[in-house]
Amino acid sequence: MGEQPIFSTRAHVFQIDPNTKKNWVPTSKHAVTVSYFFDSTRNVYRIISLDGSKAIINSTITPNMTFTKTSQKFGQWADSRANTVYGLGFSSESHLVKFADKFAEFKEAARLAKEKSQEKMELTSTPSQESAPGDLQSPLTSESINGTDDERVTPEAPPIPEARAEPSQNALPFSHSSSSINKHWEAELAALKGNNAKLTAALLESTANVKQWKQQLAAYQEEAERLHKRVTELECVSGQTTAIKSQKTELNQTIEELEMALKAKEEELERLKAEVESANEFKTQKDSITQKLQDTESRNQTLEAQLSDLEQRLESSQMEREAFRKSLRSLLELLDSKIFELNELRDTLAKLLEGS
């Protein structure tokens, strides 16, 4: 089946500055997809993130790793294999909490998988340990197995010196028996030496073969790991097509939003231009009104001067009219006196006429 994504989220990816070991260096220009992958063939959990076709995170989860939340939206973990510290910036605290929970869950799963693997290796290695003693770790030779000529133990023959010193009737049969026993033990010793030599040669050959097999196994493991990483990268590239499409959709949406924002800014700019033109018109109108006001004020001053002149003329006219009224009144009084005198004269004439 290979590796399959089991959880994905989006975050901004950072790595610690290898020079200062303090500052964060962004490895992605925008939020990218960060996924947990599980390899069922090796029981391995990994965190993988791609920026385009470039793998910016390729971290295998081990039981001794720890994910630390340093703020409400930022978390980090150290990867000793990659010799770096990864940091993730999330859009919300809930995304960070969910990622941290998954990290703890897969870390525990990695620990259990490692324990099961160790148990299987112990069960596999038990028969080989029982068939060969623990001293096989050191180089063995025929001398270390059989001992030197001085250290070899031979079967003790029955004591016969006394028989040789004092021959008796039973001396010949006993000597014959001792010779047969010695030949038997010599044959057994020769067979043991041959077996020991064969076992030693086989052991030396097995030791050499084991060393060679270990070297070949290490080379095969390195090659398999390299090929596995390459296959994983290719699978990630092919397996994250949906994520890339979603990123493309998001980018298109972002472009549309930016275009709409740009259009809104252009409309606002046009409105501001119209307001500036209107302000210029208002300024022109203000200047015109100010000029008209100044003209009106000057006309008002002229009218006030004319009004003052008219008031003076009216006052003089009123004075003249009053003088005319006085002269007219005096004339009327004079006329009344004259009329009264004429009446008296008429009456006098009338009386004279009546008397004549």
TrEMBL record:
Coiled coil: 182-327
Gene Ontology cellular component annotations, sorted alphabetically: cytoplasm; postsynaptic density
Transmembrane segments: none
Claim: Coiled coil is one of the keywords in the record: yes
Swiss-Prot/TrEMBL keywords: Coiled coil, Cytoplasm, Synapse
Alphabetized InterPro entries for the sequence: Homer (IPR045027), Homer_EVH1 (IPR044100), PH-like_dom_sf (IPR011993), WH1/EVH1_dom (IPR000697)
Protein name from the UniProt record: Homer protein homolog 1
Source organism per UniProt: Stegastes partitus (bicolor damselfish)
Upper classification of the organism: Eukaryota, Metazoa, Chordata, Craniata, Vertebrata
